[in-house]
Amino acid sequence: MSKQNIRYLQNDTPDEGRLQVNVETPSGRLPIEDAKVSISYTGDPEGPIEEVTTNSSGQTEPIELRTPPLEYSMAPSEQQPYAEYTIQVTAKGFIPVNVSGIQVLSGETSVQRVRLVPQESDINPIDNIVIPANTLFGNFPPKIPEDEIKPLEETGEIVLSRVVVPEYVIVHDGVPTDSTARDYYVTYKDYIKNVASSEIYATWPDATLRANILAILSFTLNRVYTEWYRNHHIFRSFVH
């Protein structure tokens, strides 16, 4: 669907969703008060449609925004079921950040976290973030098949005596063979939340959401166990 048609649906349907922006420091531990958040339509930035400021908790009030009709997200369709918005976040003493492609569904609240880097900092800032389409709507290449049996190599990593639920998950931002792509350390809870929000729609019935999230949890923990078992086997092989 063209951006013009999406804009038409956002303006000429009664459906609305909400967007709340949480602004914090790079560690995620301290909120940033009085950050200014400017909201516009993604792909059609004729000027901000809303401008808000964060409170002492680093949060904006939930902002009502136009969305396509609810029924678009309840069954497969060629119609885009969510509206896309862009925000620009600025705060005194921090490097501004732009986030585009924020998805807002009818009747739901989208929460966008933004971490601002101080202007005088050694941290390499990411100041332009583009959120890709939901996998249910966008066109993505098929999953790259993986070898069922992988070669045994000494990794140099510390291998625990037992498998545990991880605190962090390493996300490689590219295909496995792309050594130039960045690796991001994401908390396990945030990883599950982010995968779920990119693969399902929040408008679905509660039981459907729970079933899909449990499937994501199971797949992720299966991968964790498989990697632990493989590395544990490698470690024991080299020790003995």
The number of distinct helices, counting runs of at least 4 residues, comes to 3
Largest sheet report: 5 strands, mixed
Give the overall pLDDT as a whole number.
84
Count of DSSP E strands? 10
What is the structural class?
A: alpha+beta
Beta-strand content bin: 15-25%
| Helix fraction by DSSP (H/I, runs of at least 4) | 10-25%
Order of helices and strands: HEEEEEEEEEEHH
| Quaternary structure annotation | single chain
Radius of gyration: 21 Å
- Our measurement of the CA-to-CA distance between the termini, rounded to an integer number of angstroms, reads 60 Å
C-alpha geometry? globular
Question: Low-confidence segments, ≥5 residues, pLDDT <50?
Answer: 234-240
A few lines on this structure:
Helix content is 23%, strand content 25%. It contains three helices and ten strands. The chain has a five-stranded mixed β-sheet with strand order 3-2-5-6-8. A three-stranded mixed β-sheet has the order 4-1-7.
Secondary structure layout plus pairing:
Elements: H1 3-12, E1 16-24, E2 36-41, E3 50-53, E4 63-66, E5 83-90, E6 97-104, E7 109-115, E8 128-130, E9 168-172, E10 183-187, H2 188-199, H3 206-239
Parallel strand pairs: 1-7, 6-8
Antiparallel strand pairs: 1-4, 2-3, 2-5, 5-6, 9-10
